[in-house]
Structure prediction request, 219 residues.
Amino acid sequence: MDELAKAVQKKYIEDITKKYPLHRFLVMFMVIISSYIYSKGDDVRVLSELQNIKLSFIFDFNKGLLASVDFEQLVIAIFVSGIIGHIYFKVSSMSFNLLAKASSFDSYISQIKEKVDSKKSQEEVLNYFLAKDVSKELEGLRVKLKSFHTRSEVFLVAALIIGWGWGSNNYFDWLLVLVLMVTIFSNIWKAFQFYISDFLPYYITEQTLLGATVDFGDK
Prediction:
C-alpha cells in the first residue's frame, strides 16, 4: 500500500510540474514578495526593502509573508506568473525566428541526414534501437536547452519587479535592469547556438533512423 501511495504521489508531482514547471513557483513567489514590498507605499525601492526582510519572516506560516497571502492574492500571483511566462515565450519564439532567418540551415540539415543515411543499417529493428539510444541523449540535451530559457524567464521577472518601482529607482536599479535584459538576450543567443551545434545533430539522427522528416525548429 505504501508503494502504491508513493507511485501515485510521484505521478501527481510529475503531472503538476509538466503543466506548471517548477521554476514558475519561484516566479510566483517573486511576484508575491514584490507585491508585499510595493504595497507599503509609492516611494519604495525593492532592492533596499529586500535587505530588511528576514528569511524567518518569509517562511513564517503563522505571522510572516506567506501567512498574510489570501486566496485572491495567490490566484493573481499565479495569473501574473503565467502572463510573464507567455510574454517570455513570445519573445524567445520571435528571437528564434529572427535568428533562423538570418541564414539558411537546409544544407546543414541535409548534410547530417545524408551522413546518417549512409551509415544506417538495412535492419529496421536495429535502427529503432539505435534511435532509442539517441533519444536518451536527447532528453539530457532538452533539459539543458530548457535551462537557458528558465534562467532567462527568472531574469525577466527580476527586471520587471525592479522596473515596477519606476519613480523610486536610482541609476543602479536601472543599470541592473539593463544588465538583466542583456543577460536574457545573451541566454537566448546561447540557447540558439546550443540548439544548432548540440541538439539538432542528435535530433536529426534520431528522426532519420526512424525514417521521419526533419524541419528546422523541431524539438
Q: What stands out?
A: The chain is about 80% helix and 0% strand. The first helix runs from residue 2 to 19.
